[in-house]
Structure prediction request, 180 residues.
Amino acid sequence: MNHATAFHPFARLLHWLMAMMILAMLFIGAGMVSTVAEKHDTLVAIHRPLGIVIFVLALIRLGFRLTHRAPPLPSDLPLWQRLAAHGSHVMLYGLMIAMPLIGWGMLSAGNYPVTMFAGVHLPKILPSDPALFAWLRESHRYLAWLFFLTFLAHMGAALMHGLIRRDGVLQSMTGGRSDV
Prediction:
């Protein structure tokens, strides 16, 4: 498969690694806010460093994407689907970068430590402010729902391309041979 019809192997590696991490992060986040059991502390201990890793990988991925073009979409794809594809990609990149920053800022504003792992704490990025903490907490919650819905739409579109249209779009990200 040449690079005109497939993503670079490094882009594919980042895509699938981050997809698993983001999906885990969304479910861990949902579990965190729905329990006060002792599992809560374990979920928080996973959620914070995982968010920072996603943030760093998103920056690497964005830099790689800006220097390595994506394969073109099929020429017969309707305009609205092209716009939806590009819009959802912009949304996903934005959320991959914004969500960890909002979470980090929320914890800073709430005067909570941002612990990566035992003994390693990130510095505060915002001053302590209960009103700002509350606003960022609500933002983090609603954007998590938006992230989840965008993720589902992205998965649905990938399956439509792979199972219904069979136009090579899904194969460009899996590394499989394209019929295009």
About this structure: Strands lie at 114-117, 120-122. The mean pLDDT is 91. The longest strand covers residues 114-117. The CA atoms of residues 15 and 173 lie 8 Å apart.
